[in-house]
Amino acid sequence: MELQEAIANRRSRKKFKRDMHIDDDALYQAIERATDAPNHKMREPWRVVHISKDRLGQMSKDIGQYAFKGDDDKKKDHYDNVTNLGGMLALIVQKDPRQKQNLENYMAFGAFAQNLMLLLHEAGIGTCWKSPQYIFMPEVRDTLGVKDSEDLVGFLYLTDMEDRVSHRKRRMKNLITEY
Length: 179
Ligand SMILES: Cc1cc2nc3c(=O)[nH]c(=O)nc-3n(C[C@H](O)[C@H](O)[C@H](O)COP(=O)(O)O)c2cc1C
Known about the structure:
By secondary structure, this protein is α+β, with helices and mostly antiparallel strands. 41% of the residues lie in helices and 17% in strands. It is built from 6 helices and 4 strands, in the order H-H-E-H-H-E-H-E-H-E. Helix 3 packs antiparallel against helix 4 (72-84). Bound molecules: flavin mononucleotide (FMN). Residues 11-12, 14, 128-132, 154, 168 line the site of flavin mononucleotide. Residues 7-157 form the Nitroreductase domain.
């Protein structure tokens, strides 16, 4: 697949009403290949926790008790949505106490994440990066095994690519100015 084609056609998939399945071997291969992302001093400041299809329901119950405390409708909605997915990745960045290195780590993570989404697109696996407020909850972090030296920067929802998705057009306002 052409790089330009993958960049142009990778789109966030936000509907999870059907039961979806993905190829976990292709997923693991894409994760390894995505690590060719640039990262300063080769800190490789990324890791993921794979929640496979058969573990999605348990994970939803485990984090739902904190994330949606007292709101049974939201718990059910999350459970129904995520159990339809083909799997999920918890996205984890290595923090650094030094300001510059911390910024570099976060930006390297973004490069890794885009590599990963493009490679998954090429492998026929759809994605949506989700960053709900509850990624900051200590109980949710603990449930996923996120260490004090790390941040949970979201979840990558993994789907098939059967549904059509529209292209969200970019405004490209003030994109380039002349020096
Ligand atoms: C860091 C990051 C966090 C995001 N968080 C969410 C989210 O919480 N919920 C959601 O529906 N989409 C989320 N998205 C997806 C964006 O909404 C999506 O990329 C944007 O609408 C552009 O659409 P496209 O990815 O199809 O080009 C996130 C994307 C990024 C890069």
